[in-house]
Design a protein that fits this description.
Length: about 90
């Protein structure tokens, strides 16, 4: 296996990590922003108020997108294993 193949695998792996983490992070960002605006409007400055909705939102996002995330991870692993077999 040459260095170009290793760099390609690393680049695809990092892109996959970014792709899979984007949806939960976006959900957490939107929920956090919404709760922060609510706290600013109501002047309710409780720092623990945003934790539970963020966790619930991220878990719901992962539950909805979980099959797609797993399919992408399995596809990457199959490609990786195929490249390992071809390198022999």
């Amino acid at each position: 296996m040459d260095s170009n193949a290793i760099i390609t695998i690393l680049r695809e792996g990092l892109f996959l990590v970014l792709l899979l983490s984007a949806a939960p992070m976006l959900a957490s960002l939107v929920i956090g922003l919404t709760i922060s605006m609510f706290q600013a409007v109501t002047q309710l400055q409780e720092p623990t108020l945003s934790y539970v909705p963020k966790v619930v939102g991220v878990l719901i996002t992962i539950a909805i997108l979980g099959p797609w995330m797993l399919a992408q991870t399995v596809r990457f692993a199959q490609t990786l294993f195929d490249n390992i077999v071809l390198a022999r």
